[in-house]
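Moderator note: this is an archived Q&A kept for reference. The question asked for a predicted structure of one protein chain; the sequence and the answer are reproduced below.
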Amino acid sequence: MIRSRENSNNVPNIVESNPALMGGTPVFRGTRIPVHLVADMIEQGTPIIEILEGYPSLTREMVEYAGIFAATHPRPDRPPTQPWSETKPVGREKGKLRPVT
């Protein structure tokens, strides 16, 4: 993890989000590697060594920061799932409302 205050000041410079680069998806600066992709890999249990081998342009600090970034910056296009999102509407029949009794 990031141990010194000096390194933690540089952390915000690791990630950039530019509409001209991958549609504004947060990526690691100087790459086209999405931060949330790496965070998902870590969440699924992929070892950091394996991620670094697959993406040699990343550093250990970048990979460790991906999880922190994903936790503090949720994806804007994916709202949290609501408990009622899987249920069907009640009281509709072929586009018409049924009388409620």
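Archived answer notes: Strands lie at 15-16, 27-28, 92-93, 96-97.
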